[in-house]
Amino acid sequence: xxFAIFAALLTCLSPLAIHNVQAAGATxxxxxxxxxxLGDRDRRGYYWDGGRWREPRWWHDRYQYNNHRWWRxxxxxxxxxxxxxxxxxxxxxxxxxxxxxxxxxxxxxHDHHHHH
Length: 116
Fold this sequence. Notes:
By secondary structure, the chain is α+β, with helices and mostly antiparallel strands.
């Protein structure tokens, strides 16, 4: 009986029916072929946050769209920070490698002088 009611709710897929389905992830499967993603919008223009529908102002206060997906603001800041550090380490590694190469070349030239 419960399943029949649930199925009926799903077939009409009113925002309220979906509202009552709690989800912990960014994606929720309501029924075969019915999937909700983080940032999906309902007919009112509300956004899905993985647990409930949020009004646009609430949503934009907390989320921003970057790199083809929605990020919570603090999550995006962490991502940016991580990217910056990664690039910095990358540059640092390249710099050390170049220094080591230069040092190595100097030694090679130096060794050649000894042989003459």
